Fold each of these.
Amino acid sequence: QLQLVESGGGLVQPGGSLRLSCAASGFTLDYYTVGWFRQAPGKAREGVSCISASDDSTVYADDVKGRFTISRDNAKNTVYLQMNSLKTEDTAVYYCSAARTTNYWGKGTLVTVSS
């Protein structure tokens, strides 16, 4: 079965860190451009970061630059999103997506940043 599964979300205080994982099964994630997206309550889904299939170049949304880092572990068929210096406005459901000729989406993992 072809699927993406996100994990690593949870409750963290402002200033804290979390590492999200996006694990693929049934296909090789290294061949795909992988993006992290998030959707806060009452807001539209927005792009957070992505890592390209061709050269692993990365892109970040302006409000996460310098705080979030996207990376791959091809041996584990997983893409990570390291999130540091978290803010309350980072609270959202985080989704990963793998794009090539087909787009795959995970079901999301909830990140809550609150004191």
Note: The mean pLDDT is 97.
Amino acid sequence: QMQLVEFGGGPVQAGGSLKLTCVGDGDISDPCAMGWYRQAPGKERVLTSSIYSDGSITNEDSVKGRSAISQDNAKNTLYLQMSDLKPEDTAVYYCAADLCEGGGYRGQGTQVTVSS
């Protein structure tokens, strides 16, 4: 069992930047992938950015060039640096750890609200 806690959400104006932080109480280098999902009001939860155990990274098309995922294994911490934020980035952002054998863990989420 791993608990994940997100920090760093809040209100921000369009064009601004935000850095989300996720702290795990276990070894975040152990899962197959660590990532950030987001769920906008009335929409399904979608995978935004992932970093895999081999170091490879994927980003959802809408955030490419505007977000950077990284992790500090020594601190069991995952980050998502977001820039040039848009109102459509408004969502609850969830930290996730995906296990190689299937399943995984999710945080409780942090709200990001981008105003125009």
Note: The two ends are 40 Å apart (CA to CA).
Amino acid sequence: VQLVESGGGSVEAGGSPKLSCAASGSSISDYQMAWFRQAPGKGREGVAYLDNNGGTDYTYSVAGRFTISKDNTQNILYLQMNSLKPGDTAMYYCSATSPANYDAWGPGTQVAVSS
């Protein structure tokens, strides 16, 4: 599967952008999907997870503000981000893990939050 993220950009604190991750080459309906982010000078961290049964999980810092979802018909993964903070500034990546545990990553989309 190939992944391409979009929807990033410069946002003011408190904003609510929605990231998209378009998948091609394979249906993501059976994949475990996730959003990761990497802030400048820091390691990559998992932000939101969506398993193939619809279960979700979030890292503590975004729980209650971010929502992960997917549209199996359109083959797109989403990340709705609300109440953004400057600390959310990072490159955001989507990932897909196949039933055979093969991982695919997109090139990322930058989100910059200004106070």
Note: The first strand starts at residue 2 and ends at 6.
Amino acid sequence: EVQLVESGGGLVQSGDSLRLSCKPLLFDLGTWTMSWVRQAPGKGPEWVSGINNRGDTIYYADSVKGRFTISRDNAKNTLFLQMNSLKPDDTAVYYCNRGWDIRREDWGQGTQVTVSS
């Protein structure tokens, strides 16, 4: 069991910002590439962004490029996702997982982001 804890979600208005955090309980974040993934109601999971263990290689989905910023603080064993200019289409439960892809077996409880128009 991986045990990742996501936090920072909430109910915001279109155009607002949120900062999500992800903290592993049972492993050292600094040894892993990490990704953020989201799942909107009634839809399959969508990969959002990924960052390698050193933080010098980053990728974004086209849907969030220019609005979201992924980062990590390995000393604090924490992964972040700064989300700006939020849109209603960003409404989803957000999860973090290891690797560059979607890895359901890593998911914690997720954090709900709801963006009202």
Note: The CA atoms of residues 16 and 23 lie 24 Å apart.
